[in-house]
Design goal:
single chain; 346 residues; alpha/beta; 7-stranded mixed β-sheet; 5-stranded parallel β-sheet; 33% helix; elongated
Length: 346
């Protein structure tokens, strides 16, 4: 487990609720953070991971008699078990969906999303302690075909980014569904839920999230704060635009973005960090190397010249959650925003 994960899991932290529209720092109303990384307050370190996934959702009615059902997907139409029992999942969206519709106990293997923010097993802890113990079948993007075959799945769920050759290899093992990427996280989530036989539950989960995102946005006065979202890789600094997963969730909540971040994702140089500026800055680290580089940049004069740093308005968030895809990850971001958008770091 990386250093950031250890801090996030072990520490306790309280964050606050002073509206950003009140420009003052009133000590009587602001509870300041007690845990930080390179001066950034850590958010989400007390995230509940026990009993996170709901009970198994009802199976979708197919209107077709038999043991299989046709499912259209990025590679065509496949005959899928009507109610799959042994599922292998090869992407973040599918794994998130398996939790959201309650079928996670039937997941017998999954591609490893991020080894640096995980629980006691191979999978990320934010999806709950049950899924955290699901064995890995290799990394996302390069699954181990032999390891998948050894699990004897009756459904394999992945994404079209794996390519047609990998799809052919997988269909030789079990019925396989590849979701179409590039259409927004909600569409991908619904495709995954339908492949798992719980499309209706997926629609209901999204409707509930949409209502909660609107409510949270009102509660935290989201439109009054321009939030910057930054990711440190091993040797680069990436800024999320509105089309990233985190960017889409922030937009739905109503959080404003700095002018420089209202288009596409982009990179910045460590000696010119002005495009990173915002009323609040969320940072995350791509593994241990990203954390090392992030700490280096966050100790620089250029970083400390940012007004958000001077004001104590920089927060470190879980990279797997904010880089994820699906309702469970989106709800985790909602919780992070509720705890931090109007908070300050001690």
């Amino acid at each position: 487990m990386g250093a950031v994960a250890a801090v996030c899991l072990a520490a306790t932290m309280a964050l606050v609720g002073c509206s950003d529209s009140e420009a003052q720092d009133d000590a009587s109303t602001i509870i300041r953070t007690t845990t930080n990384i390179a001066g950034a307050g850590v958010v989400g370190n007390n995230r509940d991971t026990v009993g996170l996934c709901p009970a198994l959702a009802p199976l979708d009615p197919t209107g077709i008699e038999g043991d299989t059902r046709p499912v259209g997907h990025a590679e065509g139409i496949s005959a899928i078990p009507a109610d799959p029992q042994r599922i292998v999942v090869l992407d973040a969206a599918g794994l998130d969906a398996s939790c959201a519709v309650g079928i996670w106990e039937r997941v017998v293997g999954a591609a490893t999303i991020d080894p640096d923010f995980r629980g006691d097993g191979d999978q990320p802890l934010y999806l709950g302690t049950g899924l955290a113990s699901v064995p890995s079948v290799g990394p996302v993007g390069a699954p181990a075909i032999d390891a998948i075959a050894a699990l004897d799945p009756d459904l394999i769920l992945g994404a079209d980014s794996l390519g047609s050759n990998t799809y052919d290899d997988l269909t030789a093992i079990a019925p396989t569904v590849f979701t179409a990427t590039g259409q927004g996280w909600k569409d991908t989530f619904l495709q995954s839920a339908a492949a798992l036989g719980r499309g209706q539950a997926g629609f209901e989960a999204l409707a509930s999230f949409t209502a909660d995102a609107e409510r949270v946005g009102r509660e935290i006065d989201a439109t009054q704060t321009q939030a910057s979202v930054v990711r440190f890789d091993a040797d680069s600094i990436e800024v999320d635009g509105p089309n990233s997963f985190a960017g889409q969730v922030l937009t739905e909540v109503g959080v404003a973005r700095p002018q420089s971040q209202r288009d596409a994702d982009f990179s910045v140089e460590a000696n010119d960090l002005s495009p990173v500026e915002g009323d609040i800055v969320y940072v995350r680290f791509a593994g241990p190397d990203g954390e090392t580089y992030g700490r280096e940049v966050m100790d620089s004069d250029a970083w400390h010249d940012l007004g958000s740093v001077t004001d104590g308005r920089v927060f470190a968030v879980n990279d797997t959650v904010w880089s994820g895809s699906g309702v469970v990850a989106a709800r985790a971001i909602l919780a992070d925003l509720s705890a931090s958008l109007n908070a300050y770091v001690s």
